[in-house]
Amino acid sequence: MFTLYLCYNIDMTKQHYHHGNLKEEFIRIAFEFIAKEDVEKLTLKILAEATGTSRSAIYKHFKNKDALIETLIERGFDIFDEKVSPYFKTNTLPLIDQFYLTGKLYVEFARKNPNLYRLLFGKKYAYIREEILSIKEEDCSGFGALKKAVERGQKEGILKKEKSYELAIVIWASMHGISSLIIDGFLDVEEIYEEVYETLFETLLVGIVSNKVKIFSALPGLSKRLQPHKTKV
Amino acid sequence: MFTLYLCYNIDMTKQHYHHGNLKEEFIRIAFEFIAKEDVEKLTLKILAEATGTSRSAIYKHFKNKDALIETLIERGFDIFDEKVSPYFKTNTLPLIDQFYLTGKLYVEFARKNPNLYRLLFGKKYAYIREEILSIKEEDCSGFGALKKAVERGQKEGILKKEKSYELAIVIWASMHGISSLIIDGFLDVEEIYEEVYETLFETLLVGIVSNKVKIFSALPGLSKRLQPHKTKV
DNA sequence: TTCTTATGTTAACATTGTTCACTTTGAAAA
DNA sequence: TTTTCAAAGTGAACAATGTTAACATAAGAA
User: Fold this and answer.
1) Around Cβ A66, how many Cβ atoms within 10 Å?
2) Which nucleotide has the least CA–C1' distance to A54?
3) How far is the CA of B29 from the C1' of C5 (A)?
4) How far apart are CA A142 and CA A148, in angstroms?
5) What is the pTM of this model?
6) Could you tell me which of A80, A171, B126, B143 has the fewest CB atoms within 10 Å of its CB?
């Protein structure tokens, strides 16, 4: 009874003035929102009501609404990297398998977080991306990681030698293209998603792999897929 | 002097009430606008001022703002088809060359009309697209044309036999992916665009082409590109 | 000429992001 | 302990947005 009353008292106190950790609360709620709806539909009113504050409270923590969304993008890229890049940091798997699995995680991320993916890879906040990428340029996240993986593949003799930058772009374009088409409602591939990804990756692989090597893969499916492309070692 | 006065009179008369062809004028101005800026920035105020009417005049011609944009999308797809599909309607070119050239027109369209492309292939108005596609399903525009071309290629023995739908998706995803990445500011490829497209198409081609055929192309570049993929006829 | 309808106008509305003057709170300084 | 003050909340007001409603006019049919 006493505890109950105390809780009630605290809640009432915290609802007005000095919320405690309102900034993080805004971010959390915003992420919660875009898990379900497009970021365009997120309003200050929604944020205010969800936190039990007023519409203008947010301005004590962010310069404006866009600043909150920019924060979402920054953290979103961290989440993205965390979810998608693990296989690029492994040494135990053949490189081709790393490509296969990373690509799969990429599309999976987009499918599971369509609104976040659209926010991260859409046009509207492209400027914030440039800042993020320029900061992290030397590390191994995002496109940089892909390009390095391609160069590694070329050194190992697995991938075609010419034009690593162009090759990386082609790979990214495939993954971005299929992800976008799916989450933007152009393709209803829920039923046949596995087949679509297999076809996509196989096509890509045959195109980027050096025609001088035969690839042995740790993943049972992959080596099989590569058999039609037999060439002498 | 008389003429001048008459013009003045007519203009004044036409500015108030009975514009003449205001609906088409709205559409024209909207297209003019998205040639330069994103459709998100188009407001009723802009349309009103450009036509010399009031902000609510548009409601006599469209149900609401979205209805105008839906009209833009419908016409936009017509323009898109007109610009992109001509090579798919030709019989004088080898099929592979048709793919090559159509793909090039596709990316070119996106680069020249980034805001329109984003409007046509973005998520926001996906619903209107479904209507358009369902109406035009049986004809040879858009994805249907691509799928038919793939099937033709399979019949001719040029393309891999399995999974025409998946193969068509892969091709579309490549073109959509590279287009989106470029126009949304992820890649600065203005300088090396030609090389990027060549690499993209080459990669794609090697992946989709049947490994039982050697392809002869009318375009000098293409047959050369295919030489690394030599196999017996 | 008169009536009607299409097509324009202006005024008002709710909702949006944003700013400003204010109030409250909690903690450091006295 | 009391005072002070910056941090963090409030509500009122603003302009811009899309939208609606009541009203005005032009043009053609009756």
Assistant:
1) 12
2) D10
3) 27
4) 10
5) 0.89
6) B126
